[in-house]
Write a structure and sequence with these properties.
Largest sheet: 7 strands, mixed
Number of strands: 24
CATH topology of the largest domain: Aldehyde Dehydrogenase, Chain A, domain 1
Number of helices: 16
CATH superfamily of the largest domain: Aldehyde Dehydrogenase, Chain A, domain 1
Oligomer: single chain
Bound molecules: adenosine-5'-diphosphate
Structural class: alpha/beta
Strand content: 15-25%
Helix content: 25-40%
Radius of gyration: 23 Å
CATH architecture of the largest domain: 3-Layer(aba) Sandwich
Number of domains: 2
Low-confidence stretches: none
Length: 498
């Protein structure tokens, strides 16, 4: 074991080399201060490893590396097809190392291994491959004004991009940010969340192996209010892309205003799911259960507010409870049959438990769950899948994002009421509608104030499709072709032919 790399054996017996340093210029280095922090396995509360924490000086070193790389011919003049090849190579390496990456993700985050492997890691490779394909298809326009002028536009990379990502999908969030940024020719300083620092460091080894020039991707672990704030406020960073809570997004926007950074934010949600009386109830239960309970409820688009037509309300609530009992199997995330692992940290566990208390004290009915769950050793940050009914619109549990296996189910009488109440929120990220009436489905889809509407499904996002929010759920779009716009500036060139 050295200070910068450590051989680890995960609970599933996978042995691998875990980097611990800051990844700058394709090398792992110690932080200037030498400060480290520990990361915890949320399933048994034991420490996994300690990694180096970046301070403002380290951010500055990484930004200089990224700026140098941005201007260096090895990246600047690399043909777009070659950029795409590098991203494809990285996707290949992610696939080759899928078992190790999924192991790290499960160990550090607590998510079930099967989900880590088939959703997170598979999604990471797909996203990188998708943007690899875009690298040589980024084009400007020719604009016809008068016969005496030739006007064309060039889509140029924005420059050095600061990317601050959350802990709920550590690898996939890195891919959503790196894919488009690199396809467009930017360079990056990425900060993973301090709750889940490990998988991005392993990804860094693959980035180097894929052949990206030094300084193109720099990955710095560290605390939000230190390293994150230093990135958001750095004068030599051109763009900031952030995914996380609305409160932190607001803070980042303020910090980024110092040099008017190009900004994209994907923040919180309290996404409504409207179930009409004519819906296929079994399908609605299947999708809405996954839509809130998947990933321990730690999904920004989770359908955390379910509104059900009064005619089918009781039937739906009963079926949803049964679904939780039958499908939401809690336990060791390395067990193949586990659907629900622990919340990512003690702080998140306590947050969910405090909302359970709030629901009880505000007088909602606890229909299922509401308790912590411990493993055989009495450990782990697990929470039972929890359902509250008889919820009033002004209750905290109806209005605030809980980010756990926690759902409120309420009834409505008319379509007008359902849409009005669905929209009665400061958020506008996901939403879903269940009905067999296609006119009603599309009408409601238009009337909902959200960045995304799922009709007769929930949360089956896809890397080809724009993802993002309205209102206080964010600014800009990730994924799809739209995701490229966040990483290019369009330059207009006017040629006088007169
Ligand atoms: P959570 O509240 O769930 O921890 P956050 O939105 O605070 O989520 O965190 C998401 C990401 O933002 C993490 O990488 C975190 O370190 C970072 N972050 C937190 N606070 C700040 C801040 N003040 N400035 C920049 N980044 C921050």
């Amino acid at each position: 074991m050295s200070d910068l790399i450590q051989e680890l054996t995960a609970p599933n017996k996978v042995k691998y080399q875990q980097p611990l340093g800051l990844f700058i210029n394709n090398e792992f280095v110690k932080s200037t201060s030498g400060e480290k922090f520990a990361t915890i396995n949320p399933a048994n509360e034991q420490e996994i490893a300690s990694v180096y924490a970046a301070g403002p000086e380290d951010v500055d070193i990484a930004v200089k590396a990224a700026r140098k790389a941005f201007k260096d011919a090895s990246w600047k003049d690399l043909p777009p097809t070659a950029r795409g090849k590098l991203l494809n190579k990285l996707a290949d390496l992610v696939e080759e190392n899928a078992n190790t990456l999924a192991t790290i993700e499960t160990w550090d985050n607590g998510k079930p291994f099967m989900h880590a492997l088939y959703v997170d890691v598979a999604g990471t490779a797909s996203c990188l491959r998708y943007y690899a394909g875009w690298a040589d298809k980024i084009q400007g326009d020719v604009i016809d004004t008068t016969p005496n002028k030739l006007i064309y536009t060039i889509r140029e990379p924005v420059g050095v991009c600061g990317q601050i990502i959350p802990w709920n999908f550590p690898l996939a969030m890195a891919a959503w940010k790196l894919g488009p940024a690199l396809a467009c020719g930017n360079t990056v300083v990425l900060k993973p969340a301090e709750q889940t620092p490990l998988s991005a460091l392993y990804l860094a080894t693959l980035i180097k192996k894929a052949g990206f020039p030094p300084g193109v991707v720099n990955i710095l672990n560290g605390f939000g209010r230190v390293a994150g704030a230093a990135i958001a406020s750095h004068l030599n960073i051109d763009k900031i892309a952030f995914t996380g809570s609305t409160a932190t997004g607001r803070e980042i926007m303020k910090l980024a205003s110092i040099n008017l950074k190009n900004i994209s934010l994907e923040t919180g949600g309290k996404s409504p799911c409207i179930i009409f009386e004519d819906a296929d109830l079994e399908e609605a239960v299947n999708w809405s259960h996954k839509g809130i309970m998947f990933n321990q409820g730690q999904v920004c688009t989770a359908n955390s507010r379910i509104l059900v037509h009064e005619a089918v309300y009781d039937k739906f609530v009963e079926a949803f409870k049964e679904q939780c009992k039958n499908v939401s199997k809690i336990g060791d995330p390395f067990e193949d049959s586990t659907f629900q692992g622990p919340q990512v940290t003690k702080a998140q566990f306590e947050r969910v438990m405090s909302y359970i208390e709030s629901g009880k004290s505000e007088g909602a009915t606890l229909a299922l769950g509401g308790e912590a769950y411990k493993d055989v050793n009495g450990k782990g940050f697990f929470v039972q899948p929890t359902i509250f009914t008889n919820v009033k619109d002004e209750m905290k549990i109806y209005r605030e994002e809980v980010f756990g296996p926690f759902v409120v189910i309420s009834s409505f009488k008319t379509e007008e009421e359902a849409v009005r109440r669905a929209n009665d929120t400061t958020y506008g990220l996901g939403s879903s509608v269940f009905t067999q009436d296609i006119k009603k489905a599309h009408r409601v889809a238009r009337n909902i104030e959200a960045g995304m509407v799922w009709i007769n499904s929930s949360n089956d996002s896809h890397y080809q499709v724009p993802f993002g929010g309205v209102k206080q759920s964010g600014i800009g779009r990730e994924l799809g072709q739209a995701g490229l716009h966040a990483y290019t500036n369009e330059k207009s060139v006017h040629v006088n032919l007169a």
